[in-house]
Amino acid sequence: MDTIIEKVDSHITGNEPNAALDAATEILKKGGLVAIPTETVYGLAGDALNPDAARKIYEAKGRPSDNPLIVHIANEEDLKKIAKDIPEAAYKLMDVFWPGPMTMIFNKTELVPSTTTGGLETVAVRMPSHHVAYELIRRSGIMLAAPSANTSGRPSPTDAAHVKEDLDGKIDMILDGGACHYGIESTIIDMTSDIPTILRPGYITRDMLEEVVGKVQVDPGLESTSLNIRPKAPGMKYTHYAPKGIMYIVEGNSANGIIRCINRMVKERQAAGCKVGVLATRRNASAYEADEVIVIGDREDELMISSNLYRALREFDARGVDYIYSESFEGDGLGDAIMNRLIKAAGHRVIQAPTI
User: Which domains does the chain have, with CATH numbers?
Assistant: First the structure.
């Protein structure tokens, strides 16, 4: 299969003609797959109501078939076609956060094939704010199942080059709309429980949600690694976001302690003939003695860190790094989402730096 790559204006709106969106629509109508930019990460889109298209998504990604796909819509009427028992709290959240990086889980209607939901009786739904994704859904009239457009387990793609690296020759088209804004996946909230429950943290934080609907809880299984847990949402099971090198996160009570701990481990790995990288904040980068130091941003700017995270992990792959040591990025709000992705990328390998 030859994968077509088409650049498309990321600010497209209205009904002006667009050949790339027209071509993508034809592919989707025939059950094909199109990688699309969203405000979070690039998604691998297929017709959410076509079981064969959903199966193609799993096959192209190498994704476990019980890992549910998120359905992307462009209007509230489509939500009512695929979801039932929609609580009032959900409408309040839609009014504030849709279109945007928030996914909600509802009981599904019979219209949604079990292939799309990983065999579950629930469906995950969001309305993207990226103009390309939104306009493609609106113009085509097709609700899109669209997990991240990468090989399953790899760092999610935040520009078209990442998609090409993983899926070239496996999918029909890539719509190149430039770099993604947030750089990490959407917040997922389960609306089928009595209290809205966060199943995956993202840019829309618990505090932001609680300002709208009151109490919101975090699922205790969010960080579970048990293979006996059936995932209700993407990201709750299996390895995710992992670079090729073995990664560790280093936590500590002081920046100097973390730097010393990382440099000590870097030297040990280098002495064994390994190429070593460090994922660092701008302030500390010059203090590291690794072969490759990649700056992820300023600690005070969490959005910069989130938007650079997957790009940095893929860059380590490109540089042939065997081991990666990362500073930790604990913090309220978006810091929770950043650490969630880092911990999964590192396979839960976390080291405590000695107290100094």
Answer: 4-218 (3.90.870.10), 246-352 (3.40.50.11030)
Does the structure show a pLDDT above 80 at 101?
A: yes
β-pair type (276-281, 323-327) = parallel
What number is the average pLDDT over the span 184-206?
A: 97
The C-alpha atoms of residue 97 and residue 183 are separated, in whole angstroms, by 17
Hey, what are 10's tokens? 């990321």
**Coil vs helix vs strand at 13:** coil
246-251: strand order across its sheet: 292-297, 276-281, 323-327, 246-251, 350-352
**Read out DSSP for 301-312?**
-HHHHHHHHHHH
* Assessment of whether the complete model's pTM goes beyond 0.90: yes
Kindly give the residue spans of alpha helices, DSSP state H, lying in the chain: 19-29, 51-61, 76-82, 88-97, 131-140, 160-167, 206-213, 255-271, 302-318, 334-345
Q: What is the DSSP letter of 114?
A: T
Q: Residues 287-329: pLDDT tens digits?
A: 999 999 999 999 999 999 999 999 999 999 999 999 999 999 8
Strands 4-7 and 173-176: parallel
